Amino acid sequence: xxxVRFYLWSAGLSxxxxxxxxxxxxxxxxxxxxxxxKHVVDGDVKGLRWWVDxxxxxxxxxxxxxxxxxxxxxxxxxxxxxxFMVTFARxxxxxxxxxxxxxxxx
Length: 106
Fold this sequence. Notes:
The protein is an all-alpha fold. The chain has one domain (2-93). Helix content is 77%, strand content 0%. The protein contains five helices and no strands.
């Protein structure tokens, strides 16, 4: 999230605009994090896979919206790193526990 905020800042967005966009990205990722916690307990790998796909779709939508308003660097950054942002969830499907905000994900 720090990098997303940096790209938004370097693109010249106001603090309110940066908070809006970063809040959307962060909200999507927190939803996935809560889903990982739930689905790991109940063993629902199929449900967790659905949530990973949903998050990737939402990140793509956000990226497309940013591209449409001319924020190409931020759009590209989110699009290129979307798969890395869900690594913790994909590892959870394989039984590997990695903290959501851990450098191991990077």
